[in-house]
Fold this protein.
Amino acid sequence: MTRGRGLAALIPFIVFGALAIIFWRSLSNDPKFIPSVLINKPVPEFNLSAVEGLQIPGLSHADLKKGNVTIVNIFASWCVPCREEQPLLMSLSANKDIHLVGINNKDAPADARNFLGTYGNPFTAIGSDIDGRTTINFGSYGVPETFVVDGKGTIRYKVIGGLGASMADGSFFKEVQKAALPLKQ
Amino acid sequence: MRIYLTAIILVLLAAPIAVPNAIAVMPDEVLKDPVLETRAREISQDLRCLVCQNQSIDDSNASLAKDLRIIVRERLTAGDTNEQVFGYLVSRYGNYVLLNPPLQADTFLLWASPFFMLVVALSVAVIYLRRRPELEASSGIDPDADKPTNEMKED
């Protein structure tokens, strides 16, 4: 009887300890991270015209189904993390094996030209998403976001926010390499 | 004392009703058809603003929330049912966009846990109450000690 009650008295401490561990671990979760439902789904259909005044073609979903892995970066001139990210994209574009295209979110053409003139243009194609609908169809809720799309036009990976962290730890390149392999069904 | 307490409880209960709804909907977004507009408002109140996560898109001034409000109204005008509008957004943003999560396999724990806690609490209460007379008897305290005696009446 007494021994039974002694053990029972431990239960609150065990429950408290378990909760404390769960909550402590949850502290390091990123509340801004929302897993995308579009991973391993085809890219949405879109057909965006080029940014006015730039000698770079626009972008459509057909461009993402040409057999090679494509990195799609959603950017805007008004987005501060995009400025920090631009040098990384420039270094990516130096690699000729990488197809890097952009979706320009809610920018006036003049602002987009200005931004690319100042920070450099790493993209081989840029779709001008003035009303932001294509960005929404990509399940994106902020700028910048970067998608890795395989040769069949399937979204394989998504980075929310700047590429800095995932390029520094190599996880971004791993995902790009994975996207070159066919998706396991 | 009891009157004060009742008054405080009543005030607390009424508070959420008395607070006016914060409305972010701009006049140019409002649909001409009042029935559709009412439906749009109801739907918007159940959709999470993904930028400011604890607000609905109906409450939020974020530009993404505005875009989503306009999309909700466009879908309704195009003849979508409420479920189709929710489905449209869930297919892009996942269940996270819903402020009222659906009951399905991966949310079962979420929905079942209040009932589970109720069962646990009730069983603990029942066990405790059934064991109490036995505990009092064994502790040597007279369980009738604090009951009023009938001495006064007998006098």
In short: The longest helix of chain B spans residues 108-138. The radius of gyration of chain B is 27 Å.
